[in-house]
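Deliverable D4.2, example record:
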Amino acid sequence: MLKEGMVFVLAACVGIGAGVIAMGKASPPSTLPAKSFSSTDNPDNPSSPSPWNETFFPNDPVVTHDGRTLRFYDDLIRNKLVVVNFIYTSCSNICPLVTARLSKVKDILGDRFGRDIFFVSISIDPVTDGPEVLKTYADTYNTGPGWTFVTGEPEHIDNIRLKLGQRSNVKAEHRNDIMIGNDRTGTWGRDSAFSDLEVLAKTIQSFDPDWRQPPRVKEETLALVTDPGASYQLHNKPGTILFAKACAGCHSIGYGNVVGPDLAGILDRRDHDWLRRFLREPDVMRGEKDPLAVTLDQKYPGARMPNLGLSDNDIDDLFAYFASHTTGELAASGVPAAPATVTPVPR
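Output generated by the structure prediction step:
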């Protein structure tokens, strides 16, 4: 199984394509079959019942980030369209990035999120991740109603994770794909949080048989960062795609702090050698108690900068991208200034 850093490198550098990568309605092994279901598979046909129901999913008790005790299948899966993934809050690699990207997907789903579509994040470290820890984590990423983080007794969490295909006992090697399913129709599949976010949102909604994709409109711009109502012209600049995949879930440039600090003027506010090293190995710098790294952790609890496995070339591209977003360029492009109420970025 690939380690988390390798998963990011594959996703960011190769670009995981959109669309479900495993889907099925039959033969319920511990991991979903890599096959597409046929349109002739009618979930309402009693001669071909879906196995993805209470006979497959565990119904162990779990505890939510707001302290409620629920049954996993009865309360979180039954009759719902859900996205399920695995996380642990002390993860210094991919978990924060996946959570931040799913938070962007939540915003794209709009009022359907929490009404028709629900997210469930399962901690694979239930000993550390009690309800209070999970609540801080959920609040950090602005998850809101409709997204439930769960923990519980280790034996119950182990039963759930093993059944859903999370078999490694090494936390850093846990699965980083997401499960998407509609319990009403019995259709389930897997996708990647590193897919194009707009396309991923459409993929999730496609599990609802009543959903109709809106007519395609020619798009001249691509929203990369921050304000859901804002768009950026897609320039052929170094670092553009890398920033969109790796950074935009947590950072804005010129819109104020999101999950992490606003990066406007970052090259003027940070020593370049320090910044290069922090982009390359933030986990090592935290372990060394680097004063600025510790200050950032304290200011943004639960949102530690992950180690993304960036190469020197990746960092050069990000520096070029940061340099291209000067105050003058932002003003010329019509991007509004950050609100006056934004919390100042630590210097």
